[in-house]
Specification:
0% strand; elongated; single chain; mainly alpha; 92 residues
């Protein structure tokens, strides 16, 4: 059980969801949730992989971020807290 208040969960959900949608390719939403390793993976794949693949890797990471952002925003606060804050599920 986490020690987050309802407003903290709501704020984290909103921040992670919106940054997932708009900055998802760079893993910003994962940094917000405290998932440093997956965030760095997304950032490196987007930047380094994007250069090597002419942007294809960045596009794929952006789509993953978009999907995750939508998933975050469609969950209830309780589902979001139990899945992403308590259980720490880093991907989808």
């Amino acid at each position: 059980m986490s020690t987050f208040s309802d407003s903290e969960v709501s704020n984290k959900k909103l921040a992670a969801g919106l940054t997932g949608i708009f900055l998802g390719a760079f893993g910003v939403h994962k940094f917000i949730l405290g998932y440093t390793k997956p965030a760095i993976i997304m950032l490196v794949v987007s930047l380094a992989g994007g250069v090597v693949t002419c942007g294809i890797a960045s596009f794929v990471m952006g789509v993953i971020g978009l999907i995750e952002g939508i998933i975050y925003l469609t969950k209830t606060n309780e589902e979001f807290e139990s899945t992403y804050l308590d259980a720490e599920k880093p991907w989808f």
